[in-house]
Amino acid sequence: MNIQQLLQGTDCSCGKHHSCDIKFVAIEKGAISHLTHLTEGYKSVLLVADENTYGVGGAKTEAALGERLAKKVIFSGKTILIPNEDAVAAVDKEMDGIDLIVGLGSGVIQDLCKYVSQTSGVPYFIVATAPSMDGYASTGAAMIMGGMKVTYPAHVPSVILADTEILKDAPMEMIQAGYGDIVGKFSALNDWKLSHIVLGESFCQENYDLIEQMLKKTLSLAEGLVNRDEESVRVLMEALVIVGIAMAFVGSSRPASGSEHHLSHYFEIVGIVRNEDYFCHGIDVAYSTVVTAALRDEILAKPWPDTQFRPTREEYVAEVSRIYGPVAEGCIALQDKVGLYNKDMISVYKAKEAEIRAVLAEVPKASEIEAMLNAVGMDMAEFYALYSKEKIADAILYAKELKDRYTVLWLYYDLFGNQ
Q1: Secondary structure class of 287 (helix, strand, coil)
Q2: What phi, psi does 148 have (nearest 5°)?
Q3: In 129-227, which ranges are continuous DSSP H helix?
Q4: SS3 state of residue 145
Q5: DSSP 3-state assignment of 306?
Q6: DSSP output for 347-403
Q7: Backbone dihedral region of 251: left (phi > 0), alpha (psi from -120 to 50 degrees) or beta?
Q8: What is the DSSP letter of 402?
Q9: Of 248, 253, 179, 249, the residue nearest 217 (C-alpha)
Q10: Rounded CA gap, 180 and 28, in Å?
Q11: Contact 44, 99 (CB under 8 A)
């Protein structure tokens, strides 16, 4: 697919004109060299990286920027970089006189630069170092503020550069993460369609089809990715960028982020709060997609009750406080605002049961998705070894508290939350 043509936008059958403000994308060998001519109009560039990403692309990036490079923020590579208030402050401190931010990295560096770019009004470029996630082209900056996972509206990068020589040598976990993030679209797309049926949420078939096309293409790459085949890695990166463009078209992460992402965010937030280990984002998304597929399998296999599950307010507050600790208050406030706990959902489910069941059946079974992950060397045994049964059970019932988005997690909770 021609990304540059896609960036020109489209008049969609949904009645909207979809557009994306990214000016240039290059996914190719030697892509970093484009920085030289792309930064000709800028005078003072800030480079943001961590020690690991700087180690693989810093020299090439600095050479391409030349004397336009004014300042650098290089975070430690020895600990996990969290995109929180401290990280933002470290970048903000160097922003005086800067007219362009260049991020060198993947997920966290991308979100951090995107957030600071949005708040400062200074444009940014991203130089990708791993095909690990689909946020490069999206309009959301996934940050952790006040201990909560918050996706802030933000503008897209002006430029995305991805040097395939660097991408193919990324840690295998990062390549698996990108593949897993795309596999997660089975869940995200299904949740989008489910919410359209249940709550009447807006839905765009053309963007749904675009992401589904990228999903099918990615599944064919497994063997090449395991072998670090440069063309396979290029196609994976292309798919990740196109999914991000689709999110920009829709104006939110909805087409690419559903229940599987909620579970991933839960493991990350709880891990930070409790100082416990968690997988990188795309790996968690991939494994969580197996979990959400299993929920759909269970919903399809069981008769549905005539009453929905609801705890008392006291029971609810106690459970959320037990799980989320110091960030529980924010979770509760968010769900009070969303208001789904106060709605009679069971009558909607009963009225639309046939249609809901038909949509849920469109997702491959959990065993089939697990086989897709096995194809790139991922093993669900690692997931169960890291996360206890209690933690996973809590995630299934209460990961939904982190977001204001309807997914299969709500359907499962309403039907079987008391079992």
Answers
A1: helix
A2: -100, 145
A3: 164-167, 172-183, 185-199, 205-219, 222-226
A4: strand
A5: coil
A6: HHHHHTHHHHHHHHTTSPPHHHHHHHHHTTT--HHHHHHHS-HHHHHHHHHHGGGG-
A7: left
A8: G
A9: 179
A10: 22
A11: yes
In the numeric block, the tokens 């989008």 are attached to 192
pLDDT digits (tens, 9 = 90+) for 27-66: 999 999 999 999 999 999 999 999 999 999 999 999 999 9
* Res 267 pLDDT > 90: yes
Residue 282: pLDDT above 80?
yes
Cβ count near 85 (within 10 Å):
12
Rounded Cα distance between 153 and 139, Å, is 6
CA distance 368 to 229: 25
Question: Would you give the DSSP letter of residue 9?
Answer: -
DSSP one-letter code for 70: E
How far apart, in whole angstroms, are the C-alpha atoms of residue 408 and residue 194? 8
Domains and CATH numbers, the chain: 3-168 (3.40.50.1970), 177-202+252-416 (1.20.1090)
The 10s digit of each residue's pLDDT in 227-262 is: 999 999 999 999 999 999 999 899 889 999 999 999
Q: Calculate the CA dihedral of residues 259, 263, 264, 268 and round it to 10 degrees.
A: 150
Burial of 306 (0-12, 13-18, 19+ CB in 10 A): exposed
